[in-house]
Amino acid sequence: MAERERDNERTRAELPERFARGGFDLESLERLVDGQRGSDPRQVEEWRAYLRSLREQAGPGGSIPTSLDNLVREVFGPLLR
Q: How far apart are CA 61 and CA 34, in angstroms?
């Protein structure tokens, strides 16, 4: 579990730069959502629903098209606060 927490912290540290420049990936967003165990279950389920939808749009390696950057910023932005 300590390794997962380190991964979540690393992801949180990297994502502000990605939020500024774009270029998101599913794995990073999934790690952030997985780290929200104490959050409102309805909110976590909403994030998971977005991840399922984004998975259909993702490219090789889980990269999310830059055309969806604004959506990702709007939906997942609270995970960085």
A: 19
